[in-house]
Amino acid sequence: MRKDFDPAQLAPNAFYHLMTATVVPRPIAWVSSISRDGVDNLAPHSFFTVASAAPAVLQFTSVGRKDTLRNVEATRQFVVNLAPEPLFEQINATGADFPPELSEFDEAGLTREPSLKVRPPRVAESPVAFECELHSTVGFGRSTVVFGRVVHLAVAENVLDGDHPLIERLRPLSRLGRDEWGTLGEVKDLARPAYKSSGAL
After folding, report:
1. Does the keyword Flavoprotein apply (predicted)?
2. How is the chain split into domains, by residue range?
3. pLDDT digit string (tens) for 88-104?
4. How does 13-25 read in b/e, with b if 16+ C-beta sit within 10 Å?
5. Top-level class of domain 27-180
């Protein structure tokens, strides 16, 4: 037995909570940006994924017109920092609705690290930073999907095995429903099978 929900018959906020509780876990784009006035912004966005590998493009969604979106539209640059478990409290703190003239870096006690190819700074405490230039945006009602072309990737050496980032060292956080967050948990390793035709040659 299932219970049915029609998005057209529910308030948008009600269906939002259903979606975020069932589309799980969701990786977090911890996006740093900079305003026209030079104020650094940092905010977590849990509608986030890879849009393309070649060219390398990441995407995240701004629900409503938040400082991150306004900054990216104004400067056309941003950084996606990995959201790791040891920074759980700071990541959550940067989700507060600070006024635009305050920087979440300062409010959360985080360290700015200069980026190599874009103006917005990286989060020095985060092990991974994707420096991005705005590719395009697409609007859906109150939401805006932001596509960023990756122009540089910086990964901390202490999370690498050669050139491969180790998941147990990255320890990424994820978002679940309500105020719930997910940690890495058990990792299972299973190779993808290859299809083999049963026909004789």
Report:
1. yes
2. 27-180
3. 999 999 999 999 999 99
4. eeeeeeebeeeeb
5. mainly beta
- Read off the pTM: 0.94
CA dist 55 → 51, 73, 131, 134, 151 (Å): 9, 21, 14, 13, 10
In contact, 42 and 126? CB cutoff 8 Å: no
> How many Å apart are CA 76 and CA 70, to the nearest integer?
10
The reported pLDDT for the residue numbered 196 is: 82
Where residue 86 falls (left for φ over 0; alpha for ψ -120 to 50; beta otherwise) is: alpha
Q: Are 128 and 81 in contact (CB under 8 A)?
A: yes
What secondary structure, in 3-state letters, does the chain show? CCCCCCHHHCCHHHHHHHHHHHCCCEECEEEEEECCCCCEEEEEECCEEEEECCCCEEEEEEECCCHHHHHHHHHCEEEEECCEHHHHHHHHHCCCCCCCCCCHHHHHCCCEECCCCCCCCEECCCCEEEEEEEEEEEEECCEEEEEEEEEEEEECHHHEECCEECHHHHCECEECCCCCEECCCCCCCCCCCCCCCCCCC
CB 119 within 8 A of CB 92: no
**What's the pLDDT at 29?**
98
Contacts of 122 (CB under 8 A, 6+ apart): 32, 79, 81, 112, 113, 114, 115, 129, 131, 154
Beta bridge partners of 134: 148
